[in-house]
Write a structure and sequence with these properties.
It is built from 13 helices and 17 strands. It has 462 residues and is α/β, with parallel strands linked by helices. The two termini are 46 Å apart. Bound molecules: ligand G3I. It is an enzyme of class 3 (hydrolase).
């Protein structure tokens, strides 16, 4: 878990603005004011969300507040890498699916958190490095984003990849050591897997203009200039007893880059300023048309990872705190007509912008195996997802051959081993996906530079 000193670092960023927040007036709600956080936010085209632990969904005090006040949820832990892929290639979606079902049943949108993060990596990934880890990372992004395709409003594709302190650079981690392009590779894989989800970079101690947030800013500007698919930046906003005076200006400079901004994990240390700081954060979001919404990191004080900080909007008995009124008033006082599209929790899954599968012979039902490819392409690159289907005899193993056009190279492969990276490349099963029963399917994928348009995979069973 992140050390408390990170929070203290946030506190040290405070400037004179902290003095002004105490003077901010709560505006009287208008006649049409929302009487809950979700109604007030929705009236202004925003969402108001909470981090949820599935273990608490059977606690009625908790669920009553959750359903009444929030129209967006995020899994506090259930969609993280250790939860969703506890063993390599074996995926577990029970907790994440439960969050999604709860959202769908209660008119909420879902933020996905988090596809790649150096913390809460499963044990098997912690011991990996180099190209094996890169493949595993990209496979994880692809599989998880595909599983939840059409159900997630915004994914935290990469979480907390920048270092604290004054360097403005990346944090060291085994993910970072696979190469500086790991973040853009992850965003491209996520876009290919779920073209309808907004793709966010999410971090803490980026809640004002400082070296770390400027490092993130420079990355986002670079991504936008090169067409790397990034749509949003998440500002966690785990705050101490003060708030940086340039909190809103910082949001605005990111919004000016052409990305949506979201407050993703808001909680504030208890004390005299708590209600004012919650209000300031809410007003700052409302003042930025591209600020899509706010998520608080838990429901009641005793649900919070911050323990005795009492950092949330409801006390442990479920009573509204002064901070609640401060947020509600700020939502009701905020301008409407943001440029963001409010998340629609009930949309049907969007059609991915993949090319139609291109099956090869023999068709399922014959002997051997067949393969089909779905491509997601952009200028200069692509992600290919290949479906392998066993024929009537099943397979003990399989090899899929693909002949790539000149100038096209494979840069990463997941759930298969590649014989090379250009020309005719043979992809062979890995240990856990070679044995397929009659008619059974598995998927592997590869990512590359250049174009793979029109490639025709051929499958051979062993
Ligand atoms: O589920 C196990 C349980 O079986 C076991 O007995 C127990 C023993 O320690 O651990 C339980 O797992 C804990 C898990 O929360 C669920 O409660 C982990 O140890 C604990 O590390 C984990 O903490 C989470 C933390 O991320 C992990 O770093 C917090 O709940 C969660 O609020 C926190 O959230 C993060 C965001 O994802 C990213 N930004 C910072 C934020 C706060 O640290």
């Amino acid at each position: 878990m992140r050390p408390k000193r990170a929070l203290l670092a946030t506190a040290t960023l405070a400037v004179a603005g902290a003095l002004t927040v105490g003077m901010t007036l709560a505006m009287a709600p208008s006649a049409s004011a929302g009487t809950t956080l979700r109604a007030a936010a929705a009236e202004k085209g925003r969402y108001f969300g909470a981090a949820v632990a599935t273990g608490k969904l059977s606690t009625s005090t908790y669920t009553t507040i959750l359903n009444r006040e929030f129209n967006s949820i995020v899994a506090e832990n259930e969609m993280k890498w250790d939860a969703t892929e506890p063993q390599q290639g074996r995926f577990s979606y029970t907790g994440g699916d439960r969050i999604v079902s709860h959202a769908q049943a209660n008119g909420m949108s879902v933020r996905g958190h988090a596809l790649l993060w150096h913390q809460q990596e499963p044990g098997w990934a912690q011991g990996m490095s180099g190209s094996a880890l890169r493949s595993a990372m990209i496979n994880h992004v692809t599989q998880v984003a595909t599983h939840f395709r059409g159900k997630i409003y915004a994914w935290d594709v990469v979480n907390e990849a920048f270092a604290d302190g004054g360097s403005g650079g990346r944090r060291d981690s085994n993910l970072q050591r696979t190469g500086n392009d790991w973040i853009e590779a992850a965003f491209r894989a996520a876009r290919a897997a779920d073209p309808g989800a907004k793709l966010c970079y999410n971090d803490y101690n980026t809640d004002g203009v400082n070296a770390k947030s400027t490092g993130v800013y420079n990355m986002v500007r670079d991504f936008k200039s090169r067409g790397v698919p990034i749509d949003c930046v998440g500002f966690q906003s785990h705050l101490g007893t003060t708030i940086p005076g340039d909190y809103q200006a910082n949001l605005k400079r990111f919004a000016d880059l052409g990305v949506e901004v979201q407050i993703t994990e808001l909680d504030v240390m208890t004390g005299g300023n708590q209600a004012n700081i919650f209000g300031t954060v809410t007003r700052s979001c409302m003042a930025i048309p591209q600020c899509a919404g706010i998520t608080v990191w838990g429901v009641r004080d005793c649900d919070s990872w911050r323990g005795s900080d009492n950092a949330l909007l409801f006390d442990c008995n479920g009573n509204k705190k002064p901070a609640y009124d401060s947020v509600l008033n700020a939502l009701n006082a905020g301008p409407g007509n943001p440029t963001t599209t409010p998340p629609n929790p009930t949309t049907t899954p969007p059609n991915p912008t993949t090319t139609p599968p291109n099956p090869t012979t023999p068709p399922p039902g014959g002997a051997g195996c067949s393969a089909s490819v779905s491509l997601n392409s952009w200028t200069g690159g692509f992600v290919a997802t290949v479906k392998v289907t066993a024929g009537s005899s099943g397979t003990r193993g399989w090899t899929v051959s693909v002949t790539l056009p000149g100038g096209t190279s494979v840069t990463g492969t997941w759930s298969a081993t590649a014989s090379g990276n250009s020309g005719t490349v043979r992809f062979t099963n890995v240990d856990y996906n070679g044995a397929l029963g009659a008619g059974q399917s598995t998927e592997f994928g590869f990512q590359g530079t250049g174009s793979a348009a029109g490639v025709t995979p051929t499958c051979t069973a062993s």
